[in-house]
Amino acid sequence: MIGRRGVLRAMVVTGVGLLLVPVRALAQRIPAATKSALETAKLIYVATQRKSGERSTVAPVWFVYENDAIWTTTSPGSWKAKRIARGSPLYIWVGSESGPFVVGTAEKITDPAVISHMGELYSDKYWIAALGFFRPRPERVSSGKTIAYKVTLAEGTPPPAPKS
Q1: Whose CA is closest to 100, among 25, 152, 40?
Q2: Is 109 helix (H, G, I), strand (E, B) or coil?
Q3: What are the beta bridge partners of residue 32?
């Protein structure tokens, strides 16, 4: 006979399993061609959503792609950082402004070990980062000079360009 604790434990395990299903499905919904482009591209082109609901202009961004996520940084005073803090999705084109498109949800990262790892990956990808410039550093993130993000990806439809 299963007691109350056993039933509760089974419900929790089942609930956690059900919560992980959408996360696994998200990672699998990105087409193989887009994943391949993310693995080889030097830049992604990113836009955010303005308060008006309109898409911002597109900007090139350095990034690394690992574990089905994009890892990137930005200045805390940038419009991108302000919009992400407000909950804006990231509209991402891979490799060029007409490249494969995905939608991202950014999560702020502060773990020094993760940021150090990002710096190593940047150094492997960008020659100037290998020289010690423009790479993520834990001390810059902890001092508030840089914000680091993990971006979870999903398929999506590109929003219309901003009005001129």
Answers
A1: 40
A2: strand
A3: none
**E strand or H helix at 126, and its extent?**
none
Beta bridge partners, 70, equal 65, 151
Cβ-based neighbour number of residue 151 at 10 Å: 22
Please give the average per-residue pLDDT across 92-119, as a whole number: 96
Q: Which residue has the tokens 């087409």?
A: 31
Greatest Cα pair distance in the chain: 69
**What are the beta bridge partners of residue 90?**
48, 104
| Averaged confidence pLDDT in the chain | 88
Angle among Cα 121, 125, 127 to the nearest 5 degrees reads 115
Q: Are 45 and 60 in contact (CB under 8 A)?
A: yes
Please count the residues of the chain: 164
Q: Over 50: is that where the pLDDT of 25 sits?
A: no
User: 10 Å Cβ neighbour count for 93?
Assistant: 21
Q: Are strands 101-109 and 147-154 parallel, antiparallel or unpaired?
A: antiparallel
Per-residue model confidence (pLDDT) at position 54: 95
Token digits for 155? 């398929």
Cross-strand pairs, 106: 151
Residue ranges of E strands in 10-55: 44-48
> What residues pair up with 93 in beta bridges, in sequence order?
45, 101
Phi, then psi, of 40 in degrees rounded to 5 = -110, -20
